Amino acid sequence: LSRESPGSWVRFHPDINSNWRRRNRLQADLRQAVARGELLLNYQPYVSLKSGKVAGAEALVRWQHPELGLISPADFIPLAEESGVIHALGEWVLQEGIRHAAQWRQQYLSNFVISINVSLLQLEDARFAEVVAAILATYHLPGEALELEVTEGLALRNTPAIDSNLQLLRALGIAIAIDDFGTGYASFSYLRRFPVEKLKIDKQFLDHVPENESSSNLVRMIVAMGHTLGASVTGEGIENIQQARFLARHGCDYAQGYLISRPLAPNALEQFLAAARPL
Ligand code: C2E
Ligand code: CA
Ligand code: CA
Ligand code: CA
Q1: For the whole model, what pTM was predicted?
Q2: What ipTM was assigned to the predicted interfaces of this complex?
């Protein structure tokens, strides 16, 4: 729809149309994806910058569509949120992630923590915390082994359910992490509202660390702020050793990113944990 060529929308129209059709199709297919077993989880480990040891892993959902192939969560999570499928999808992710975590704590790493992304819409569901508690009980996983990552993207509505969920989650020992910290417009209202145990510094702030001075200052400031709030801090999207050294030097607690590992299929994560296992 460019101003330079007024007629050009005609050319673009079919694309917009097929994008829209693809969206509708994905949205319809997504309703069945959970039941058909088309979702899978990859796990990206993260390490403590103090000890150098693996501390846990983040569960990242993928959709193996029978015709369209592997679809990224960036493409279907927003659709799931729009249609309400996020509730069933999110529950499946919790179930699967917690099941694996329980197994890995027994076999590989007794203090392994599983980090699971949850949509704010899930937190607004009055039964959310009870469902989480029930899944933990099923797999005999203590609350301390679970961390829920909430992205500060959506505006934080004033729903009473959020507060009661957060209260119960906290009582269970489950930590809340703010994901992509600093990218939303609501960072400070989240901090005021949430009992935050962790801040995850978004990749975009770390990409040009340490050579870019303003990025580096911002990162140091977020680490200090997290610690002032009694939260630990993770640097995300760490791809090189210079970034990791910068974070370690400035007291950041955890690092996650391709430098440590790409997101892995469950069996590959098991190999990773076996190799990293302290004897
Ligand atoms: P996120 O939570 O910020 O996850 C980190 C994303 O960065 C992942 O992409 C991961 O593969 C990628 N990443 C990690 N390390 C590096 C690195 O060193 N370099 C680069 N270039 N990328 C890195 P992914 O798996 O495509 O996930 C995208 C987003 O989808 C996630 O962002 C999260 O917001 C959302 N998501 C994923 N799984 C779930 C889920 O189960 N539920 C919900 N609600 N959202 C999810
Ligand atoms: Ca995340
Ligand atoms: Ca993130
Ligand atoms: Ca993100």
Answers
A1: 0.93
A2: 0.97
